[in-house]
Description:
The protein is mainly α. It has one domain. It has five helices and no strands. It has helices at 5-8, 14-49, 55-86, 93-104, 119-171. Helix 2 (14-49) packs parallel to helix 5 (119-171). It starts with a helix and ends in a 9-residue tail after the last helix.
Amino acid sequence: MNFSEQDLQYVTSVEEILWGVLLVAVTLVIHGFGMVSTLRASGALKARFQHPPSFSRGMAIIILATGLMIMVHLLEVVVWAGFFVWKGAMPNQSLAFYFALMDYTTLGSNFNLPPQWRLLEGMIGIAGMMSFAWSTGILLTLAQTFQDEQLDILKRRRANRTGVASAAHAREPDHPVPPA
C-alpha cells in the first residue's frame, strides 16, 4: 500500500471531531423532527381516509410515509453538503451533495475530502446508518400496523364465510325426516 506524503502527515484535529459530532447531532435532530412529522402525517391520513381499512389506502399511507422519509434524509444530506462547501472541502454544492449522499448511504464515492476533514467521511456514514435505522423502525411500525389490519380483514371475511356456511348447515336436519 502506497501512502502519499500528505497522507502520512494527516493528524485528526479536535476541530474536525467537534464539527463531526455537531453535524451528527444536527442530523439526528432533523431526523427526529422528520420522523415525528411522518408519524403525525401518516396518522392524520389514516384517520381521515382509512375507514374502512383497505389494502390500497394502507399502501398509499406507507408509500407517502416512505416519500416523507426520503425527503428528510435528503435534507440531512443538504446540511452536510452545505458544510463541505462552506469549509471549502468541496468546490460546489452539486458535487458536495453527490459526495455527501454517497457517504451518507455508505456507498462511498470517487471523491475524498481534504485531509483536514477526512474523519468526516466516516462520521457522515455513522449519521446515515443511525438515521436509516431509525427510519427502518418507523417504517416497520407502519408496516406492522398495515399488516395487522389486513390480517384482521381476512379473518373477518373467513369468519363471515364460515358463519354463513355454519348457519346454512344448522338449518339442515342431521337426520332427514322420511316422507310421510
